[in-house]
Amino acid sequence: MSDGLSRRDVVRAASVAAMLPLVGAFSASAAPRRNPTLKIGIIGCGGRGTGALAQALNADPDTVAWAAGDIFADRLDACLANVASSVKLNGESRTAIPPERRFVGFDAFQKVIDSGVDVVLLTTHPIFRPEHLKAAIAAGKHVFAEKPVAVDAPGIRSVLESAADAKRRNLSLVVGFCWRYHDGMRATFEQINGGALGDITTVQTTYYTGTLSRHPRKPEWSDLEFQFRNWWHFTWISGDHVVEQAVHSIDRLAWATNDRWPARVICLGGRAARQGPEHGNVFDHFSAVYEYDGGMRTFHACRQIDGCPSDNTDYVYGTKGSAVINGWTPTFHLKDLRGDTLWKYKGRNDRDMYQNEHDDLFAAIRAGTTINDGERAAYTTLMALMARMSAYTGQTIAWDQALNSKESLAPASSALAWGDWPTPEVAVPGKTKFV
Ligand SMILES: NC(=O)c1ccc[n+]([C@@H]2O[C@H](COP(=O)([O-])OP(=O)(O)OC[C@H]3O[C@@H](n4cnc5c(N)ncnc54)[C@H](O)[C@@H]3O)[C@@H](O)[C@H]2O)c1
């Protein structure tokens, strides 16, 4: 902790604070409850990072934005210019990061981590998550890390090690699989995991949407900058959309099976409607069949093609009934085998799941307890990665094979410099080899 305070000091302060109302009964001059200020560092000042920083600051009044890092100065400046208005209490003063703690470059992450922060928000493109997470945990920081947690198997193995390291060091690691922090989802999956549908026989999830932003090349951009400005469309930076976006639906598929991991996957995919350099080398559709020991099969399909209907629904089937789940509409409905309602979510829909993530993280830090989503997040991301590996190669890919893959897409930050960077080729099933 900063300010020379140890975890034990914080816990002791919290116990004293808990006693204050009682003390107040005897002493009108008792000091108001005051927590040590937690310093927050943000690494990756884009859309999600800006939201996460405001949510972290809104989660606990005794926090300040202490340091910020990005590879682009324009993104960092825009984030800090916008975030103050989303902070409910003293936004201007709590987000006023001086120039000496604003870092730009591929090494910015280490400078943020070394700046004296207590909590780090990792909200860059997925490629950097394993490296940044390892550095943050090794330095003893609590972490909020966005999903997905890696773009390749070496990254997954690194995240598994970091998650174990966080456990050893009593550090919290909250991962942005935000639906796990959504009230309606939590209640619904509690019903399913508790047996309301009987034994789960299969699950189908979908993530059909349009294509994501494209930024035409500017003359002053190098190859590498062009790829980073269009990161969603480059597999080595994003993981491809089955990993970057549809991993939310794959995570809920896993949740419905009580986090049972598949033995293998066969996934079909391709690139039917993507054209032009901004579209990089990612596919635009995937359709995965996961197979489990014992024979159960589950299904996931995703598409990013304009002009087609969108859908982001989960269908869960069990021996006693089925469920239709959609967080956006919102629909949380369990039916019996005749189609009659077994259960419907009637709880609150007014709490923001992104805010809940930070409320839980900071409550855990204040209480001296920990949350560690790391291992589950790594395995969910691996489920998405193995689908991509199968679609790119045209082969059935086993769980252990995927976990032990030697394909490394993410160079170390120290190996990156603005300049020439070849456009990666689009995979061709049957020709592209599994590595
Ligand atoms: N949980 C959700 O619902 C949700 C929603 C949106 C995005 N995300 C995830 O959040 C992450 C960020 O997405 P986004 O939409 O904010 O993208 P974005 O492009 O808006 O922001 C990413 C930022 O990270 C910066 N960056 C990249 N590499 C960096 C590095 N090495 N060091 C410092 N900064 C670096 C970029 O310059 C950019 O400003 C992605 O992993 C994405 O999948 C999650």
Short description:
By secondary structure, the chain is of the alpha/beta class. The protein is built from 15 helices and 15 strands.
Rg, rounded, reads 23 Å
Overall CATH architecture of the largest domain: 2-Layer Sandwich
**Bound compounds:** nicotinamide-adenine-dinucleotide
How many structural units, i.e. domains?
2
Strand order of the largest sheet: 14-13-12-11-7-10-9-8-15
Ends distance: 42 Å
- Helical fraction: 25-40%
Main sheet makeup:
9 strands, mixed
> Spans with pLDDT under 50 lasting ≥5 residues?
1-29
**Secondary structure tally: strands:** 15
CATH C-level class of the largest domain = Alpha Beta
Order of secondary-structure elements = HEHEHHEHEHEHEHEHHHHEEEEEEEHHEH
Protein structure class = alpha/beta
- The CATH superfamily of the largest domain appears as Dihydrodipicolinate Reductase, domain 2
Mean pLDDT over the residues = 92
CATH topology of the largest domain: Dihydrodipicolinate Reductase, domain 2
